[in-house]
Amino acid sequence: MAGVTAPPSRPMLGGFLTRATGTGPGTGSRWARLAGDHRGLLFVAPFILFFLAFMLAPVGYAIYTSLFTSKLIGGTRFSWFANYSQVLTSGEFWAGVERVLVFWVIQVPVTLALAFFFAVIFDLGLAKLGRFFRLVFFLPFAVPAVVASVMWSFLLVPDFGPYARLAAALGFRGTNYFSPGLILPTVIVIVVWEFTGYNMIILYTALKAVPKDVLYAAAIDGAPLWKVILKVKLPMIRPAVVMLIFLNTIGALQLFTEPMILATFQPQAISFGFTPTIFVYNTSIGNGEYNLGAAAAVVLGLVIFAISVGSRAFFRRKREAA
């Protein structure tokens, strides 16, 4: 029939498949050329080099260093796992781990709850000048942690700080936010202020990606707004929430900058092992026991790895059960 193209013959089709799959004669040279094409390797080479130089090499060196013991008399000798035994039996180290876990239990849920609350407000368009206020909420994350800690230190300084005066006006005279009993809540407040905006931006972006037809269906069914938020939107952004839980958990277990800055205002409130990272720093830099500090760093890395893997397995099992 005129105007109709005949289907390809079997030899033509077979030749096409042979060329597409590279299984015919003479294809060895083509695969050899592809195997010799190193352009992809050149693209990933910078990342691989930086990963090896600044991630794997320091980890390997820390493990290597932790297996030795250096003494003024006797020099450096191979001591197997003696440093690990000392770390694992150190009450100071595990007190820091316990303290940072308390910090994590409070800081991560509070930060994510506030971030989700503000993200929902911006997503629903309830706030005027939404772009401006999103920028305002994100700015604390752009402030370096050292600067933020110093700023809050001056705000909370006893007797002269505005918050100390506010507490005195409310009848709580002599409030010292840097005392041993209040130093951990003070650190929590600073970290929540720093990271709420960052988490809010990620959750806001995830909320904007929720399909509109799902929301329209919920509205047609007469679901109240709070149910749409908690029963429809929140489950649909669960991957973003899980990711933020992992990121905030790792950040909490590596708590270092904020308590170290606050220690300059009241050193007795920050102990030698206030957090595991401060224990590593004081052991290695303060006392010069680099081998013991390396062992503590390796143990802390294993603790973070175990918590991360356990959390991931928990959320995966929970998702499969749902």
In N-to-C order, the SSE pattern is HHHEEHHHHHHHHHHHH
Please provide the count of β strands.
2
Query: Helical content, roughly?
Result: over 70%
Per CATH, what is the topology? Answer: MetI-like fold
Strand content: under 5%
Major sheet: 2 strands, antiparallel
Q: Average pLDDT, to the nearest integer?
A: 84
Can you offer a commentary on this structure?
The chain is 73% helix and 2% strand. The chain has 322 residues and is mostly helical. A two-stranded antiparallel sheet has the order 1-2. The longest helix has 34 residues, at 91-124. 23% of the residues are buried.
Keywords for this structure?
single chain; disordered N terminus; mainly alpha; two-stranded antiparallel sheet; 322 residues; MetI-like fold
Describe the protein's topology.
Elements: H1 10-21, H2 28-35, H3 39-66, E1 68-71, E2 75-78, H4 82-88, H5 91-124, H6 130-142, H7 145-156, H8 162-169, H9 183-208, H10 212-220, H11 225-236, H12 238-253, H13 257-262, H14 276-286, H15 290-321
Antiparallel strand pairs: 1-2
Helix pairs in contact: 3-15, 4-15, 5-9, 5-12, 6-9, 10-11, 12-15, 14-15
